[in-house]
């Protein structure tokens, strides 16, 4: 097989936001695909056919000398015309994903997430968080189901995002999937125990009030395991008073601000 194949394959991947996306759309294993890119191994005829079909090239073309192949690809329509244009930061994000691979497997599963409400600072929110992996990247979903004490209506929020494990810290970056009006970030300490019980850190988001203040608050995750009754767990989610005995005392103490009076979250002040 041509020694130009890895270089030609990297050229084609450059038309897409990330290598992870290419692997998902072709349906090939990321680790194996990396071996093709590095020239460490060669795909079978079947896999080569899938790769060429996806990129819209012929098997004999992808084996051409790189300069010749580059000219052919450039004069054709963009191979990724059905996807977003390549942005300069996509490759950097892909590198961060690679850096995280395999490092957060012990954190997969379901958690209760506790923090003081960003809209009603004197109340505690318990929501359900699920961390999962597709083998290449880590993702999370967070479900909030709450009814405030003075209201009859139930409110629901759903966050989706990506988890990265970088320099001994866990980063969860996501967006509100129902209203698309917020990006939220959580930074957690990892645990050095063999079994994950609790994780702690800080959470940054925006208040749902009319003022939409940027807010930072302490957060604690309580591990529930990898297999649970989601329906039963959601029934336990909601809004609780600061001294509610439905919330473990240690959790209540660990999400409190260092001051004993005033708001338990830190609100930014507009200038």
UniProtKB/TrEMBL annotation:
InterPro entries xrefs: Cro/C1-type_HTH, Lambda_DNA-bd_dom_sf
Protein name in UniProt: Helix-turn-helix transcriptional regulator
Pfam families in the record: HTH_26
Superkingdom per UniProt: Bacteria
GO MF, any single term: DNA binding
Organism this protein belongs to: Microbulbifer okhotskensis
Start and end residues of each HTH cro/C1-type domain: 18-62
């Amino acid at each position: 097989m041509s020694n130009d194949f890895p270089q030609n394959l990297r050229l084609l991947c450059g038309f897409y936001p990330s290598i992870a996306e290419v692997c998902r759309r072709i349906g090939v294993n990321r680790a194996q695909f990396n071996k093709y890119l590095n020239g460490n191994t060669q795909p079978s005829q079947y896999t080569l056919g899938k790769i060429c079909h996806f990129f819209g090239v012929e098997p004999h073309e992808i084996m051409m000398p790189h300069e010749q192949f580059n000219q052919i690809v450039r004069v054709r329509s963009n191979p990724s015309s059905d996807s977003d244009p390549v942005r300069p930061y996509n490759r950097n994000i892909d590198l961060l994903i690679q850096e995280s691979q395999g490092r957060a497997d012990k954190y997969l599963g379901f958690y209760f997430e506790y923090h003081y409400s960003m809209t009603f600072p004197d109340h505690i929110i318990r929501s359900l968080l699920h961390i999962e992996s597709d083998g290449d990247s880590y993702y999370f979903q967070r479900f909030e189901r709450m009814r405030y004490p003075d209201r009859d209506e139930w409110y629901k929020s759903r966050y989706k995002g990506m988890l990265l494990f970088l320099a001994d810290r866990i980063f969860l970056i996501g967006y509100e999937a129902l209203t698309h009006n917020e990006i939220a970030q959580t930074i957690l300490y990892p645990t050095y125990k063999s079994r994950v019980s609790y994780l702690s850190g800080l959470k940054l988001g925006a208040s749902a009030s009319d003022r939409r203040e940027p807010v930072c608050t302490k957060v604690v995750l309580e591990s529930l395991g990898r297999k649970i009754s989601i329906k039963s767990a959601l029934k336990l989610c909601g809004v609780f008073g600061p001294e509610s005995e439905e919330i473990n005392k240690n959790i209540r103490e660990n999400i409190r601000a260092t001051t004993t009076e005033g708001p338990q979250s830190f609100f930014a002040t507009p200038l």
